[in-house]
Specification:
elongated; 5 helices; three-stranded antiparallel β-sheet; alpha+beta; disordered C terminus; 2 domains
């Protein structure tokens, strides 16, 4: 899925709690949070981005959810996750024949963990470290490099 509904579901009780404190600044903050949640629920469409199976990925078209493309795991050369300009994470798949397929998602950790389980040796970071002969860190600690911002 595209949206992270957990964040939206956590924001509602936090906003209501802030409003119930009955202090001017907390009421304003709670109302701003509720407005953002209302916007996310009504304007941001949730859609399927990628379905992941043991032998393939099904990538859905961004404009037409009825269209999909099946990518066999053996046809994927490497994958990586990067930040995009829209504050969503971007999953990038490079195919063996050179084509690059990019999809936005707000579910960074879920996407990263699933891809790492399916294709750990095809992650671009792992390929680069193996090429240099360096040791590859395993687990979630390796994802922290994704969150570091360029200066």
């Amino acid at each position: 899925m595209y949206k992270n509904n957990t964040a939206v579901n956590l924001a509602i009780p936090i906003a209501l709690g802030l409003i119930l404190i009955r202090h001017v600044l907390t009421i304003i903050t709670g109302l701003v949070i509720l407005a953002a949640v209302f916007f996310a629920l009504t304007k941001v469409k949730d859609r399927r981005v990628v379905d992941m199976y043991d032998d393939c990925l099904v990538i859905y078209d961004e404009n037409d959810p009825e269209l999909a493309r099946k990518l066999l795991l053996e046809d994927i050369y490497e994958w990586t996750i990067r930040d995009s300009n829209q504050n969503a994470s971007c999953a990038i798949f490079t195919m063996n024949y050179g084509e690059r397929i990019t999809r936005n998602t707000f579910q960074l950790v879920k996407c990263y963990n699933t891809l790492r389980d399916l294709m750990p040796d095809k992650e671009s970071r792992v390929r680069q470290l193996n090429y240099r002969g360096e040791k590859v860190n395993s687990g979630l600690s390796s994802i922290t490099s994704i969150f570091k911002r360029k200066k």
